[in-house]
Amino acid sequence: MKKILMGCAMIVMGAIANMGMAVASEQGTHVHVAAFFKLPSQSSFQWPEEIKGDDIIGALDGKADFLILTQTVGIHDGDVLNIQNDVLREGKDSSFDDLGIDCQLSVNTSKPIWEVGGKCDIFLPHLNGGEKVVGIIRPHKIETEKVWHHVWNDSKTGVAVYFFKETGAVLGD
């Protein structure tokens, strides 16, 4: 009897340990968004319209500096991505300074050629003298997978945003 109880306990413990574990259940589309900035010494660099392959950091190494890279899995038509890389710090006169990038991107996946658009708020005072920049990303067609598409850049801050789509496993229950 003791062996049976121990065996049952082991089965229950294994089931509890596996509860909540995500498994790849289906194929879906992933979205990656990257933002880079140019330092004054990199100002002559021109942002490429496309970067083939998945290594955008390696492709821009020494030409621009990395600001943010994100991945979202299982994108659906009409999803809005909220992407932030902000720092709040105490500024002059006990006020707060907000430094970084904050983007909201809408993704239209209803057709084989996607569209992405939205806006990015950028506040990087060391790059443009303290101005906050609001960048409007007009609808941009995203046709090809596994290619980084240049969707927006700002000449004042030297910031550029790239978008990448690919098909892969989606996590499910």
Write up this protein:
- This protein has 3 helices and 9 strands.
- The chain has helices spanning 2-18, 56-59, 125-128, and strands at residues 23-37, 50-52, 65-72, 80-90, 96-108, 114-123, 133-142, 147-154, 159-172.
- The strands form 2 sheets. The chain has a 5-stranded antiparallel beta sheet with strand order 2-8-9-1-3.
- Strand 4 and strand 5 form a beta hairpin.
Flag low-confidence runs.
Answer: 1-22
Please count the helical segments. 3
Average pLDDT rating:
83
Sketch the topology as an H/E string, one letter per element.
HEEHEEEEHEEE
**Share of residues in helices:** 10-25%
The rounded Rg comes to 22 Å
Sheet having the most strands: 5 strands, antiparallel
Structural class: mainly beta
Extended strand count: 9
* Straight-line N-to-C gap: 35 Å
Show the helix and strand layout.
Layout: H1 2-18, E1 23-37, E2 50-52, H2 56-59, E3 65-72, E4 80-90, E5 96-108, E6 114-123, H3 125-128, E7 133-142, E8 147-154, E9 159-172
Antiparallel strand pairs: 1-3, 1-9, 2-8, 4-5, 5-6, 6-7, 8-9
